[in-house]
Amino acid sequence: MIVAEQKSIAEIKEIVAPYKKILLLGCGTCVKTCFAGGEDEVAVMASALRLAVKMEGRDIEIEELTVERQCEDEFIQESAEAIARNESVLSLACGAGVQALARRFKTTPVLPGVNTTFMGVLEKPGLFTEECAGCGDCKLALFGGVCPFTRCAKKLVNGPCGGSRKGKCEVNPDTDCAWHLIIERLTALGQMNNLKVYLPPKNWCASLSSGPRKLIREDHEI
Ligand code: SF4
Ligand code: SF4
To answer: Which numbered ligand comes closest to the C-alpha of 163?
Structure first.
């Protein structure tokens, strides 16, 4: 999932300062799962924002709505009437959702209410960890399903740096050493031979380093 966290009320107050009527729009998919922008978070943020603005002696009208996904036109459409009733939209979706709205509603300011952080998993209640950097050329099959490009601080692909202590990374001892995990996993799978093949430096052309990417599925084009 895409993991995001809410901006502070102080920052949001500044972002919405020019507007008196805003639509606070949640997204019911990734940001709901990471407790940043689902229906419940919309309700809590709306109350907090109303209170914060009122304490400054200002008035604001906040309409609340959550759609299933803000990154798909089919679901965005459900917010069209509410958007038309308001001066601006404060979106609690990831950056893709904010931009999809801005693309669709060209004369309405669309403002971000969360900081989009990474692609990751819920490792345990309250802990989300980054697992994939979206490199565009997945090599997880070689590494037993543990990504060194994302999870090794030095992005090493031919073995550990040697600095790991007790399974933790020398760069950040709070983090598991990716290579410790890779070796554990390949050993359990009986695939340690994978590491006998030298991997040349990664070609990052398929990644964001070459600019924004597109995925074309001709079989789905109309
Ligand atoms: S190899 Fe690339 S696509 Fe695969 S998990 Fe790592 S960053 Fe993501
Ligand atoms: S300790 Fe492990 S994760 Fe950290 S930089 Fe070295 S090999 Fe990478």
So the answer is: 2
Return the bridge partners of 177, or none.
none
In contact, 194 and 143? CB cutoff 8 Å: yes
Other beta carbons less than 10 A from residue 61's beta carbon: 13
Phi and psi angles of residue 162, each rounded to the nearest 5 degrees, phi first = 95, -5
pLDDT at 160 over 90: yes
Of the candidates 161, 149, 163, the one whose C-alpha atom is nearest the C-alpha of residue 204 is: 149
pTM of the model: 0.91
Q: Which ligand is nearest to the CA of 151?
A: 2
Characterize the bridge pairing of strands 21-27 and 61-67: parallel
Q: Is the pLDDT of residue 86 over 90?
A: yes
CB 87 within 8 A of CB 47: no
- pLDDT tens, position by position, 42-79: 999 999 999 999 999 999 999 999 999 999 999 999 99
Domain extents for the chain?
A: 2-118, 133-208
CA distance 152 to 139: 14
Which protein residues are within 6 Å of ligand 2, measured from CB?
152-154, 156, 160-161, 163-164, 169-171, 177-179
Tell me which residue has its CA closest to atom 5 in ligand 1. Answer: 132
- Which CATH fold topology does 2-118 show? Rossmann fold (3.40.50)
